[in-house]
């Protein structure tokens, strides 16, 4: 006797999608495990509570699995669980190893089954770092804030009174050591061995980061590190050039933006919460200037990758952005 497990997802809660997904899941399990009708003892199915359009057990019966006992029930709501998911556990006669089957979103969103990368690009204040942090937590994958790395380079430039001339930036680059470490799941960015995670959030560092990130020697060094980190595990990277340059083969790509006034308001709130005085008009001007710098520079400018999904978050709450992104990811798998 063998216990075989599997899971799949639907991209939306419709009877037709549930029927198709259940049939595909059971047919694949049957094929991969070479099961005949009489091998099936029982099939237990469950679905996340966001599926209400159709019973998976009924879908199984309609798909021709009426020759054994069938049962399905709804799972409790678990924070961070894979949404729109259908799971199965079936008992079958026969020996040998059970081949478990995970399809669609269930195959891609489980880090132990398949490695994947999400590229999140967009201008400053678009909400991408908040989205990236929450999504990484939900999917239990690594979040790399690449802007923090450029900010650390900028901090070094400010500390050493760099002129931002090519020659000066080159020698700064040679003497620069940036490291990223994770403590309790949170990214800490180190400059020459010192944890500068808080200092790099100072307002003057933002503009300096925009300037220093235009230099190819800086970008080459940072991009090499980013690729190395992304190679090791499933992750989400946010920045300006992730989908176009750092990870052009990322499985999922999004370009997140919002109008400049909204972005200035969001950044202002963040700065105020951290104890900085904020002049909203000036902040918006600075954001617009950074947009111009980041979009018009010669090397890896801020640009939407042709295959990135565009998300305008101006009138969206963060939960809506997350739900939209997860929906798009499921549609793609
Ligand atoms: O996302 P942020 O505001 O922390 O980024 C700071 C600056 O770094 C931003 O103005 C542009 C630059 N940057 C970049 O050029 N490429 C990235 N991948 C991330 C940030």
Q: Spans with pLDDT under 50 lasting ≥5 residues?
A: none
Fold-level CATH name of the largest domain: Rossmann fold
Shape: elongated
Summed up, the domain count is 2
Helix content: 40-55%
Bound molecules: 2'-deoxycytidine-5'-monophosphate
CATH class of the largest domain: Alpha Beta
Average of per-residue pLDDT values = 92
Widest beta sheet: strand line-up: 3-2-4-1-5
CATH architectural type of the largest domain: 3-Layer(aba) Sandwich
Q: What letter string, H or E per element, gives the SSE order? A: EHEHEEEHEHEHHEEEHHEHEHHEH
Number of helices: 12
Rg calculated over all Cα atoms: 24 Å
The secondary-structure class comes to: alpha/beta
CATH superfamily of the largest domain, by name, is P-loop containing nucleotide triphosphate hydrolases
Strand content bin: 15-25%
Give a quick account of the main beta sheet: strands, pairing sense, barrel closure. Answer: 5 strands, mixed
- Overall number of strands: 13
Gap between N and C termini: 32 Å
List the SSEs and their pairings.
Blueprint: E1 2-9, H1 15-32, E2 40-47, H2 56-62, E3 69-74, E4 85-92, E5 101-102, H3 104-108, E6 117-121, H4 128-139, E7 142-145, H5 146-159, H6 166-174, E8 178-183, E9 186-191, E10 194-195, H7 203-212, H8 216-232, E11 235-239, H9 242-246, E12 252-257, H10 260-273, H11 280-296, E13 309-312, H12 318-332
Parallel strand pairs: 1-5, 2-3, 6-11, 6-12, 7-11, 12-13
Antiparallel strand pairs: 1-4, 2-4, 8-9, 9-10
The structure holds 2'-deoxycytidine-5'-monophosphate.
The site of 2'-deoxycytidine-5'-monophosphate has 14 residues, from helix 5, helix 7 and helix 11.
């Amino acid at each position: 006797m063998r216990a075989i497990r599997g899971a799949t997802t639907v991209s939306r809660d419709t009877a037709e999608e549930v029927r198709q997904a259940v049939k595909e899941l059971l047919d694949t399990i049957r094929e991969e495990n070479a099961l005949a009708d009489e091998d099936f003892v029982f099939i237990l199915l469950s679905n996340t509570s966001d599926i209400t359009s159709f019973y998976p057990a009924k879908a199984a019966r309609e798909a021709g699995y009426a020759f054994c006992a069938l049962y399905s029930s709804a799972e409790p709501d678990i924070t961070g669980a894979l949404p729109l998911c259908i799971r199965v556990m079936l008992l079958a006669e026969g020996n040998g190893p059970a081949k478990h089957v995970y399809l669609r979103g269930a195959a891609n969103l489980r880090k132990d089954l398949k490695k994947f990368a999400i590229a999140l690009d967009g201008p400053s204040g678009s909400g991408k770092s908040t989205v990236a942090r929450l999504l990484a937590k939900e999917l239990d994958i690594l979040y790399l804030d690449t802007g923090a790395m450029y900010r650390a380079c900028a901090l070094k430039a400010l500390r050493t009174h760099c002129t931002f001339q090519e020659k000066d930036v080159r020698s700064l680059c040679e003497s620069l050591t940036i490291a990223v470490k994770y403590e309790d799941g949170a990214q800490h960015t180190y400059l020459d061995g010192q944890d500068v995670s808080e200092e790099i959030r100072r307002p003057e560092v933002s503009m300096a980061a925009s300037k220093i990130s235009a230099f190819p020697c800086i970008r080459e060094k940072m991009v090499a590190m980013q690729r190395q980190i992304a190679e090791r595990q499933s992750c989400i990277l946010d920045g300006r050039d992730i989908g176009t340059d750092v990870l052009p083969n990322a499985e999922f790509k999004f370009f997140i933006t919002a109008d400049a006034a909204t972005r200035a308001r969001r950044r202002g709130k963040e700065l105020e919460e951290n104890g900085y005085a904020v002049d909203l008009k000036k902040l918006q001007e600075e954001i617009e200037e950074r947009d111009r710098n980041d979009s018009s520079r010669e090397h890896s400018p801020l640009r939407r990758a042709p295959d990135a999904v565009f998300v305008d978050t101006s009138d969206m709450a963060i939960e809506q952005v997350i739900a939209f992104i997860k929906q798009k990811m499921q549609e793609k798998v």
